[in-house]
Amino acid sequence: IAVWFLLVLQAWLILLSVYEKIPLHIMFFLIPSSVLLSLIPVTVSGIGTRDALFFMVFMYLGINPTFGVAFSILLFLFSTLIYSIIGFTLWLKNPVRLGDNDVQKP
């Protein structure tokens, strides 16, 4: 539960940083819905499906829907790509090598 709260808080702070005021209770609906929708194996990393959700919800709220798509891309950059780049860089420094010594034989 704490991880979901932190994810919603991160998204809300990103949204506030671009000066758009959306109530926090809407974010508690929107962010978990977008994560679950992005798990549907239709697109790579749920990029199109998540963007469509933000587009429709922002249009329903009376906010420019292209801002919703831009927010979706920002959220993807902050929540996925940055952590992937950090993990890949750390892996390059100390890659995991599987060899004969790593596997226990019965």
In short:
The protein has 106 residues and is an all-alpha fold.
Helix content: 55-70%
**Could you describe the largest sheet, including whether it forms a barrel?**
none
Radius of gyration: 18 Å
Mean pLDDT: 85
The count of β-strands is 0
| Basic shape | elongated
Spans where pLDDT lies below 50 across 5 or more residues: none
Total number of helical segments? 4
Q: Report the β-strand fraction as a percent range.
A: under 5%
Could you characterize the architecture of this molecule?
- This protein has 4 helices and no strands.
- By secondary structure, the chain is mainly α.
Topology:
Layout: H1 2-17, H2 24-38, H3 47-60, H4 65-93
Helix pairs in contact: 1-2, 1-4, 2-3, 3-4
Which terms summarize this structure?
4 helices; elongated
